TrEMBL record:
Residues 110-455 form the GH18 domain. PANTHER family: CHITINASE DOMAIN-CONTAINING PROTEIN 1, CHITINASE DOMAIN-CONTAINING PROTEIN 1 FAMILY MEMBER. Residues 1-21 form the signal peptide. This is Spore germination protein YaaH. Pfam families: Glyco_hydro_18.
C-alpha cells in the first residue's frame, strides 16, 4: 500500500505543478474533461455566446481542439468499416414544427445561415423561406479580365438582377434577410491578371459597389479560387480596398470571404493572410464540401470526421475547421458551408468491354425519395454521410452499359449532426450550397427551423432529435474514460503485486509454488496484449505491420521478457540455495 500511495502522490504533484495561475487547466482538469459530455440541447434554439468553453478555445488553440473533440464522441461508431442501414439507425423525421397560430419564426441572433442562390436556379427563390436565412448570396458577378467591354463575363445574369420582375431582394428584406452580391474569380490565370492590374481592380470595385447601392443590397461576398503563389499580398490589398469603398458607400454593409478547405499553396505557405484580412472582413465561409471528387474512389463529399483508415486528401470538416481556428480565425466569424448535393459514381462497361467510372454531381432533391427505407441505403455514422448503391441502373453515358451507381450525399439526419457540431463548437453558423437544390422537398427547411429559428412568441417544447446506435457505439464514444480506467486498474494491480513482494512470505509462496507462478505469468501474458490491443483499437491507432521493424520489436520484446522472467527466477533459487 505504501508503494501505491507513493504513485498516487507523485501523480498529484505532477498535476499541481502544471498549474500556472488561473490561465492553464491542470492535467487533472484535462483528465476530468474527458468524462464531461456537452449538455447543450441545440434543438431548443438557445445559443449562449458566453459559454465558458469558448474562451479557453481561443487561448489554447490546437491543444484545446484536441481535447474538445472528445465531447462529440457520441457521434462516432465502434467499427470504421461498419455502415448502418435505416433499420439499424432510428431517427425522427423532420416534419414542420407545429407552432401556435400567429407565432413569429425568428433566426437566432448569434447564428448566420448563409445560402447561395445560383443564377441557374431561376425563379426557385420564390419558394425560399427567408425567415430561416440570415444572408442570401446572389451567385455570381464573374470578373472578366479580357477587357471585352464589360467588367463581368455574364452580363445576362448581372443585369438580370436589376430587372423589374426579379424581386429576391425585396422578398429577403421583408423577412429581415440580408443580400450580398457574390464576386467570383476562378483559375490561376484570371486571378494573376486581375490581382496584378490595379486599374482594373479600381474600376471593378466602383462598379460592384455601385450595383450594391442601386439594388439596395447589403454587401459583397468574395469567392476567389486558385490564387497563384506570390499574389497573396495582392489579394489582401484588394480586400482592404474593397472593404473601404464599400463601407464608405454604406457603413452598415458587410463583406464576407469564401475560404478553401486548405489554406496552403504549393510551398505550404498561407494563401489567405487571415490576420490581415480579419479586421476588414465581417465573416468567412468555409467550403466544407467536395472532399472527394471524380478523381477519387467513391466516398463522402463532406465527412464530419475522418478515421485514419478512411482519410482523403483533405481529411474532414472537423480537421479543416480546427486548422483555421489554429491560424487565428475568430470562431464567431467562421461559417461552415455544407452541401445540398451529392456525388454520383457510375461504373459502366464501354463498347470495348472495359470498365469505366463516370462522376457527376446530383442535387439532394433528385435523390431524396430513394434515401430512406431501402435495402441499398446505408449511413456512415463516423463521417456522417449517406451511401446509396444501385445495380443495373439505366441511363448511362452514351455507348455504355451501366453496371453500378454509387451516390454519397447528406440528408436531414446527417445535416442535423453537422449542425449540432457547428453549434457545440461555438462557430459563426452554416452555409448552404445551394438554395433550391432540395426542391421539391421541405424537410431541410424544417431542420433549419428546428436548429436555428425557435418560435419567438409562444413557449413550446421541441422534442430533441436523437439518434440511437448499437450498444457498441457507447463503448466507442466513451473509449478514453474506459481505457484510462482500465489502465489505472492495471497499474494499481501491478503496484499492489510489487508491494506485496516486499513480504518474504509472499515471495516464498509465489516462487516455491510452480502452479501459482504459472498462473500469474499466464495472466500477465493474456492481460498485457489484451490491454495493448484495446488501446490500439479505441484510440484509432493502426500500426503498420508491413514494416519489418514492427515484427522485430515484437520478437525482441517477447524474448527479453522471457529472459528477464527466467533470470529473476534463477536469482531467487540461487539465493535460497545459499541460505542456511
Amino acid at each position: 500500500m505504501r508503494f501505491t500511495r507513493l504513485l498516487l502522490t507523485l501523480f498529484l504533484i505532477a498535476s499541481l505543478a502544471s498549474v500556472t495561475g488561473q490561465e492553464e487547466p491542470s492535467r487533472i482538469d484535462r483528465f476530468l474533461q474527458l468524462f464531461v459530455q456537452s449538455s447543450a440541447d441545440s434543438s431548443t434554439g438557445t445559443f449562449n455566446t458566453d459559454r465558458p468553453d469558448l474562451q479557453p478555445a481561443e487561448r489554447y488553440g490546437y491543444v484545446y481542439n484536441l481535447v474538445h473533440r472528445e465531447q462529440h464522441a457520441r457521434y462516432r461508431r465502434l467499427s470504421d468499416s461498419m455502415l448502418l442501414t435505416p433499420d439499424q439507425l432510428r431517427y425522427a423525421d423532420y416534419r414542420p414544427v407545429a407552432y401556435a397560430a400567429g407565432d413569429t419564426v425568428v433566426l437566432a441572433k448569434d447564428i448566420r445561415v448563409f445560402g447561395w442562390h445560383p443564377h441557374w436556379m431561376a425563379t426557385a427563390y420564390q419558394q425560399y423561406r427567408y425567415e430561416l436565412l440570415s444572408h442570401v448570396g446572389l451567385f455570381a458577378y464573374d470578373i472578366d479580365v479580357e477587357e471585352n467591354g464589360a467588367l463581368y463575363t455574364n452580363p445576362d445574369v448581372v443585369r438580370g438582377w436589376e430587372a423589374d420582375d426579379f424581386d429576391l431582394v425585396d422578398r429577403a428584406h421583408a423577412r429581415g434577410t440580408r443580400v450580398q452580391l457574390t464576386l467570383t474569380s476562378f483559375g490561376t490565370r484570371n486571378n494573376r491578371i486581375f490581382l496584378a492590374d490595379l486599374d482594373l481592380q479600381d474600376r471593378l470595385i466602383g462598379d460592384i459597389v455601385g450595383r450594391v447601392m442601386a439594388m439596395g443590397a447589403d454587401g459583397i461576398n468574395v469567392d476567389f479560387e486558385l490564387i497563384p503563389e506570390g499574389f497573396e499580398d495582392h489579394f489582401t490589398a484588394f480586400i482592404v480596398a474593397l472593404s473601404e469603398r464599400l463601407r464608405t458607400a454604406n457603413a452598415a454593409a458587410e463583406l464576407s470571404v469564401v475560404l478553401p478547405k486548405m489554406n496552403r499553396n504549393r510551398s505550404q505557405r498561407p494563401i489567405f493572410r487571415l490576420d490581415d484580412l480579419q479586421p476588414h472582413v465581417d465573416f468567412f465561409i468555409l467550403t466544407a464540401y467536395d472532399f472527394v471528387t471524380g478523381r477519387d474512389l467513391p466516398g463522402p463529399i463532406a465527412p464530419l470526421y475522418a478515421p485514419r483508415a478512411q482519410r482523403t486528401g483533405y481529411g474532414s470538416i472537423e480537421e479543416v475547421v480546427y486548422a483555421y481556428l489554429d491560424e487565428g480565425v475568430d470562431r464567431k466569424k467562421l461559417v461552415v458551408g455544407l452541401p445540398y448535393y451529392g456525388g454520383k459514381w457510375t461504373r459502366a462497361k464501354a463498347a470495348d468491354g472495359s470498365d469505366t467510372t463516370y462522376f457527376d454531381h446530383v442535387t439532394y432533391g433528385s435523390v431524396r425519395a430513394r434515401l430512406r427505407g431501402l435495402d441499398n441505403t446505408a449511413y456512415d455514422p463516423t463521417r456522417w454521410s449517406v451511401k446509396l448503391d444501385r445495380s443495373s441502373v439505366g441511363g448511362g453515358p452514351e455507348g455504355t452499359d451501366p453496371l453500378l451507381e454509387t451516390i454519397w450525399c447528406d440528408d436531414s439526419l446527417t445535416l442535423n449532426v453537422k449542425y449540432d457540431w457547428v453549434l457545440e463548437e461555438g462557430l459563426g453558423g452554416v452555409g448552404i450550397w445551394a438554395l433550391g437544390y432540395d426542391q421539391p422537398g421541405t424537410e431541410l427547411w424544417s431542420l433549419l427551423q428546428r436548429k436555428f429559428a425557435p418560435a419567438s412568441d409562444t413557449l413550446v417544447y421541441v422534442s430533441p432529435n436523437r439518434t440511437w446506435l448499437a450498444a457498441g457505439t457507447g463503448v466507442y464514444a466513451y473509449r478514453h474514460p474506459i481505457l484510462i480506467t482500465l489502465l489505472f486498474v492495471f497499474l494499481i494491480l501491478v503496484a499492489g503485486f510489487v508491494a506485496a513482494l516486499f513480504d518474504w512470505r509472499v515471495r516464498d509462496t509465489f516462487f516455491r509454488n510452480a502452479t501459482l507462478r504459472r498462473l500469474y505469468i499466464g495472466a500477465a501474458l493474456i492481460l498485457l496484449p489484451a490491454l495493448l490491443m484495446l488501446g490500439v483499437y479505441l484510440l484509432d491507432y493502426q500500426p503498420s505491420t508491413e514494416h519489418p521493424g514492427f515484427w522485430l520489436a515484437l520478437i525482441v520484446s517477447a524474448v527479453l521478457g522471457a529472459l528477464l522472467a527466467r533470470g529473476i527466477s534463477n536469482v531467487f533459487w540461487q539465493h535460497r540455495a545459499e541460505l542456511p
